[in-house]
Amino acid sequence: MPSTTDGVSPAAVSIPAAAAPPAGTALLLGALGVVFGDIGTSPIYAFRETLRAAADDEAGGHGAAPAAALTVAPEAVFGVVSLIFWAVALVVGLKYVVLVMRADNQGEGGTMALLSFAVPAAPERLRLGVLVAGLAGASLFFSDAMITPAISVLSAVEGLAVATPVFEPYVVPVAVAVLVGLFAIQSRGSERVGRLFGPVTAAWFATFALAGLVRVAGRPEVLAALDPRHALALLAGNPGAGALAVLGSAFLTLTGGEALYADMGHFGRRAIRIDWFAVVMPALVLNYPGQATLVLDDPAAAGSPSSGCFPARCSTPRWRWPPRPR
Predict the structure, then answer these.
(1) Are 112 and 134 in contact (CB under 8 A)?
(2) How many domains are there within the chain?
(3) Which of 79, 134, 188, 244 sits in a 20 to 30 Å window from 7, CA-based?
(4) Residues 63, 89: contact at Cβ < 8 Å?
(5) What is the pLDDT of residues 139-185, one digit of tens each?
(6) CA 168/CA 171 separation, integer angstroms
(7) Is 125 part of any domain?
């Protein structure tokens, strides 16, 4: 293989994507529908599970508190919002979108793309270690890719049971059917999937942002939770296993973050960055504090804060099943 003038093989050099397409509306919608589905559904369950971990640790328990029995102090609610915000801002916004996406292999991103030029660039004595680290990272990515769609789809379908208990026995079968359908159409290519789900995902983020904005406008003091000192106080007040449980639950807000980098070859870094900073991150930053205002006003809503952000008429069906006898 020919070498560059500095002795590093071309495979070890990050080469930016050639002739990157302009970030037009179609490309932005496509990226929104393909790249941000998992991280966009995390508000359904991540805030609730982090609250549950914080509530369980406050009670001195060793397991997740039942959803119906969640009682969280206001300080803990502020701490959870702060922890989630800074996790999303630093890990996804700064690490992936700003820094990691600068490194690509001929326009391709992802762990394997990095590995393909990191191994040749490493000194001979370190190449095995770099290879093992890269394969471990790829394994973690595959495990995330397996569990994240299941969590996202299952949590979304659980909303049917929130609307009416009639659907509760059908949550898992419906989730399985949705997953089978998604994998069936995935083979048609990212372009068609993005064209189908882009507008839906855009409407999803707009709805979540609006719901959070309405809640935050009614109680703007909740924005003080963005102060990182609340997150540090939450972790310091729950040392050891308690802090680990809260951090593990807050990590759910980052599910799908690797997809931003892995899908860079499909849509380009420009479209992904525009979508993140213009649509996705503002929606998340508004929705999580919006859920917090709901829990601060009504602690009983901690069992399903994402659904509670919407008016009851939006989730309660106007029909009955089985129908009343005439």
Answers:
(1) yes
(2) 1
(3) 134
(4) no
(5) 887 877 777 777 888 888 887 777 777 888 888 899 899 888 888 88
(6) 6
(7) no
